[in-house]
Design brief:
Blueprint (H helix, E strand, L loop, with lengths): L1 H24 L4 H7 L6 H11 L3 H9 L3 H8 L2 H28 L7 H10 L1 H16 L2 H15 L1 H21 L5 E2 L2 E2 L2 H23 L6 H28 L10 H28 L7 H24 L4 H8 L11 E2 L18 E2 L1 H8 L1 H18 L8 H22 L9 H19 L15
Antiparallel strand pairs: 1-2, 3-4
Length: 464
C-alpha cells in the first residue's frame, strides 16, 4: 500500500502542473481560456483521489463523520493518508484557481496583478481565494476606481514618494512569500522578517510624508519642501535595497561589523538615514512657517513631524557601543557587532511576538517606534476628528484635542525612552515609570479640558 501511495504522490503534481503553468504564464492567451474553460482539467486529480479513497471508504467514513484530532493525526501521518490529503488539495486548489481566472476574465480583470493571487492559490489556496474575493468585493464597491484615482493624484503631488510607496508594499508581499521558502534565521528570527518590517514601515511612512508635502503647498519655499520629500524617498529606497541584500546574504543588516562589506553597507545606511533625518527636520522647521487650511491640520503636521524627528534621533543612540563592546574594543578583541537595541541585556534574547522588543531588559526600539509612527497616528486622529465635526455640522475649529493627543504621544515617547535607558522592559514598568506616565496623562487631560485660550500660548498662523 505504501508503495502505491508513494507512486501516486510522485505523479500527482504532474497531473495539475501544466494547467497551473498556463494560468500563471499566459492567463490571457486564448488557448488558456479554451483549456481552463473545461472543468475536465481537474479530472486527473479527481481520478487519483478516487483511486486512493474508494477502496478505503469503510475505514475513512467513520473518521470524517466523527473527526477527532488524534485519529486524524494518525491517518495523515501515514504515507497513504498524506497522499490522500495531497491529492485532495491538488484537485480543489486547481478548481479554485480555475474559477478565479475565469471570473477575472469575465470581469475583464485578468491583468498582471492576477498572477500573484494565482501563485498564492497554488501554494495556500484559502489565502489566495480570500485575497481574490476581497479584490472582487472592493471592485464592486468602486474601491478599485477610487484607488486608481488616488494613485494618479499621488503621482501628481510627488512622484518619487508615490513610487516608493508602491515599491515598498510590493516588496512586503514578495519578502513574506519568499520567506515561506527560505528557512534561514538571523539572530533567531526568520531572515526575511526584517526586510518585510522595513518595507511595511516605508510603505506607511512615504504616503504620510506625501500627504504632508501636499498640505505644505502654501509654503513660499514649496520647491525645497518637495526636494526634501525626494531625499526621503531616495534614502528609503536605498535602505530597503541594503537590508534586502544583507538578508539575501543571510547576515544582519544593522550593527554588523563582521566583514569589510558589512561595515561599508552599515556605514552607508548610517549616512543615508542621517540625510533622511535632516530632510524630515527641515520639513518640521518649515511646518512652523507654513500657512495651513486649519489650526487642526497645522498642529497635526507640526507634532507629527516633531515626533518622527525625535524618534529618528534615538537611532543614533542605538549605534553607540554597549559597555561589553567598549571593553572588547579596549582589549583589541574581535567586535563583529557594534551597537544594539537592548539595554542591560544582549540583543536577540526573549522578546514580544512580532516586534521582538525585549522582555528582560530595556529596548530602544520602543521609543524609536512610537516617535517615528507619530507620522501616521496623529494624521489619522486628525482625520477622525474632522470627520466627526463634519457629521455633527460643528463649527468648532479648535486644535486643542490634537495638541492634547500630540503632547500625550510625545510624552509617552519620552517615558518609554527613560524606561529603556534604565534597562527596564516595556512589560514591567516600575513605580517611577508609572508616575511619569501618569504625569503625561494628566498634562494631556489638562490641555484637552483647559481654557479656550490655552492653544493661543503659541503663535497662531492663518492662511495668507
Amino acid at each position: 500500500m505504501d508503495n502505491v501511495a508513494s507512486m501516486v504522490f510522485s505523479i500527482s503534481s504532474l497531473v495539475v502542473m501544466p494547467f497551473w503553468l498556463l494560468m500563471l504564464v499566459a492567463p490571457r492567451w486564448r488557448f488558456t481560456a479554451r483549456i481552463v474553460g473545461s472543468p475536465a482539467i481537474v479530472a486527473g486529480a479527481i481520478a487519483l483521489y478516487a483511486a486512493l479513497v474508494v477502496p478505503q471508504l469503510g475505514r475513512l467514513l467513520p473518521v470524517v463523520m466523527r473527526p477527532e484530532l488524534p485519529v486524524l493525526g494518525a491517518l495523515l501521518g501515514s504515507p497513504r493518508g498524506a497522499t490522500i490529503a495531497w491529492t485532495h488539495f491538488l484537485a480543489l486548489d486547481l478548481f479554485a484557481g480555475r474559477w478565479i481566472l475565469l471570473d477575472a476574465s469575465a470581469r475583464g480583470r485578468a491583468g498582471w496583478w492576477l498572477r500573484p493571487i494565482l501563485l498564492l492559490t497554488l501554494l495556500f489556496a484559502p489565502l489566495g481565494l480570500g485575497l481574490y474575493l476581497l479584490e472582487r468585493a472592493a471592485a464592486r464597491a468602486g474601491l478599485g476606481w477610487a484607488t486608481a484615482r488616488l494613485w494618479r493624484r499621488a503621482l501628481e503631488v510627488h512622484r518619487p514618494l508615490a513610487l516608493v510607496t508602491a515599491g515598498s508594499l510590493a516588496l512586503l508581499v514578495g519578502w513574506l512569500v519568499w520567506g515561506l521558502f527560505d528557512g534561514r534565521l538571523v539572530t533567531g528570527v526568520p531572515v526575511w522578517v526584517k526586510p518585510a518590517k522595513f518595507a511595511l514601515s516605508v510603505g506607511i511612512t512615504a504616503p504620510a510624508i506625501l500627504w504632508i508635502v501636499r498640505q505644505m503647498q502654501g509654503d513660499r519655499r514649496r520647491r525645497r519642501v518637495s526636494q526634501a520629500g525626494t531625499v526621503i524617498a531616495a534614502v528609503a529606497a536605498l535602505e530597503l535595497v541594503i537590508i534586502s541584500v544583507q538578508a539575501a546574504r543571510g547576515v544582519a543588516s544593522h550593527f554588523n561589523q563582521a566583514t569589510t562589506l558589512d561595515r561599508v553597507l552599515f556605514a552607508t545606511m548610517g549616512l543615508a538615514i542621517t540625510l533622511l533625518w535632516v530632510a524630515e527636520g527641515y520639513l518640521a522647521f518649515r511646518s512652523w512657517r507654513t500657512p495651513f487650511p486649519s489650526q487642526l491640520r497645522a498642529w497635526t503636521i507640526r507634532l507629527a513631524l516633531l515626533g518622527t524627528v525625535l524618534g529618528g534621533s534615538f537611532g543614533f543612540v542605538m549605534t553607540a557601543p554597549t559597555p561589553a563592546q567598549r571593553q572588547a574594543l579596549r582589549t583589541h578583541q574581535p567586535t563583529p557587532v557594534l551597537g544594539g537595541h537592548a539595554v542591560g541585556v544582549p540583543d536577540g534574547g526573549p522578546g514580544l511576538p512580532v516586534t521582538r522588543w525585549s522582555t528582560t531588559g530595556g529596548d530602544l526600539r520602543v521609543p524609536h517606534f512610537l516617535g517615528l509612527h507619530a507620522l501616521q497616528a496623529l494624521p489619522l486622529a486628525a482625520w477622525l476628528i474632522e470627520r466627526r465635526r463634519r457629521a455633527r455640522a460643528s463649527t468648532d475649529g479648535s486644535a486643542r484635542p490634537m495638541i492634547a493627543l500630540g503632547a500625550a504621544w510625545l510624552g509617552m515617547t519620552g517615558v518609554t525612552l527613560v524606561q529603556a535607558l534604565r534597562g527596564q522592559p516595556l512589560t514591567a514598568p516600575d513605580p517611577l515609570t508609572l508616575c511619569l506616565a501618569a504625569l503625561v496623562a494628566l498634562a494631556a487631560v489638562g490641555i484637552a479640558i483647559g481654557g479656550r485660550r490655552a492653544p493661543m500660548l503659541v503663535p497662531r498662523l492663518t492662511v495668507r
